[in-house]
Amino acid sequence: MLGKGSSILENSITFLEEYVPAWFEKRELKEDSSPLFIFISGPQGSGKSYTTTFLHKHLVQKYGAERRIASMSIDDFYLSHDDQITLGKRFSSNKLLQGRGLPGTHDIPLLSRCLEAIWKGDESKVSLPQYDKSKFNGEGDRSKEVTVVDLPLDIVIIEGWFLGFKPVSEIPESSPSEFFQGTPDMKQIDANLQLYAPLLWSNPQICSLGIVFEADEIENVYKWRQQQEWALKLKDDQGMDDEGVKTFVDRYLPAYRLYYENMVRAEDLGSMATLTLGIDLERNVISCKSRCVE
Predict the structure, then answer these.
(1) Are 69 and 56 in contact (CB under 8 A)?
(2) pLDDT tens digits, one per residue of 220-245
(3) Whether the model pTM is above 0.90
(4) CATH number (domain holding residue 76)
(5) In the β-sheet with 273-279, what is the strand arrangement from edge to edge?
(6) Does residue 3 belong to any structural domain of this protein?
(7) CB of 199 within 8 A of CB of 115?
(8) Is residue 160 a contact partner of residue 38, using CB atoms and an 8 Å limit?
(9) How many structural domains comprise the chain?
(10) Strands (DSSP E) along the chain, which ranges?
(11) Counting beta carbons within 10 angstroms of the beta carbon of residue 145, is it exposed (0 to 12), middle (13 to 18) or buried (19 or more)?
(12) Structural domain of residue 227, as residue ranges?
């Protein structure tokens, strides 16, 4: 392991090179055709999408001639813009559901169907949705385009800001200083979260590796998200303004406060092993640790 001073990508590649070849060997001995999942979790703007894209290219270059590799984001399974508006109206008293982002704002049936097709691998192809965050001035909408992936797959990379979050038994009372916008709101989010874990990071059918980005300050998300929106505006003149970014990120803070630290400390995002990279505001690696379960 390279550790502190090396980049996120260098550490991530080293981690994968330690476990992926051994996993392939073990799978062949068992005559098992199920894919390896690589979960990448970290706050918005911490570098998940960039890392996922790079690791996908790296794995294709290394194994592409004989292995099928795909990558996806939990964000691509957000509800359509119309369905999100309907959801917001249905739960108009819950501030955390007024826009995409939190557990409960995804198309779970679609996610379940795609994952089942990938697990079983008995279909020839699967169509993965795409989501355009720049639409409707940054509110976002499902894209008409899809990514068609040939099956069966050998490796699947999935990234998302709340991958690894685990429901809790009790929700703290409302406290403005901790950004909890009402206990009933978070109780509903916690109940929604229980739909995701059994499909992904707590799914006993899945063999997985986990890569977690641990921000030294969770408030870094405001700056990181702002940078993302600036990039969207430069690309196609759509995206949220700075005030919109603040309002948007405020809605996520209750979940970060409640789940994020517990997820990082658990070091169990991957069923086989988990790499945890501490990063600062500039996304420099300031700490590195790896935990093997098997």
Answers:
(1) yes
(2) 999 998 887 776 666 666 667 778 78
(3) yes
(4) 3.40.50.300
(5) 69-73, 155-160, 36-41, 207-215, 273-279, 285-292
(6) no
(7) yes
(8) no
(9) 1
(10) 36-41, 69-73, 125-132, 141-150, 155-160, 207-215, 273-279, 285-292
(11) exposed
(12) 8-292
